[in-house]
Design a protein that fits this description.
The protein has three helices and ten strands, in the order αβαββββββββαβ. The protein is of the alpha+beta class and 130 residues long.
């Protein structure tokens, strides 16, 4: 049992990228699928798909490389189970001067920091990617 499934997800992605793996399997959940969808739309991963294993399912994430280097140069958890980080729309700071993204859980669902600021929605800052 993992106390922080999102931290487990990003650790698996980080470790698989360091080992130059083509894909990585992660136990699926609605939140992880939403995060993978954002990572794909923003161009940080090639694709993802949910594999039915008769239990909760597995999320298979295909990693993306450019010149044999992983596209994600950094990924870190911001809000943790022991210390939740909430920000208003105006308080969500840009990642690397706008070169990266923050993934925010809002009342309208999980979205990037750009979309949250555009919709004037604050929420829990889940992670940063650059």
């Amino acid at each position: 049992m993992h106390t922080d499934p999102i931290a487990d997800m990003i650790t698996r992605i980080r470790n698989a990228a360091g080992a130059q793996k083509e894909s990585v399997d992660i136990p699926a959940s609605k939140m992880k699928i939403a995060i993978a969808d954002i990572l794909q739309k923003e161009g940080y991963i090639k694709s993802y798909r949910v594999i039915d294993d008769g239990r909760q399912g597995m999320l298979r994430v295909s990693l993306k490389y450019f010149n044999s280097r992983h596209v994600i140069s950094g990924i870190e958890r911001v809000s943790k189970p022991g210390r939740r980080i909430y920000r208003g729309a105006a308080e969500i700071e840009k990642v690397r001067g706008g070169l990266g993204i923050a993934i925010v859980s809002t009342s309208e669902g999980i979205m990037t920091d750009h979309n949250a600021r555009a919709k004037n929605k604050g929420g829990e800052v889940l992670l940063r990617v650059w």
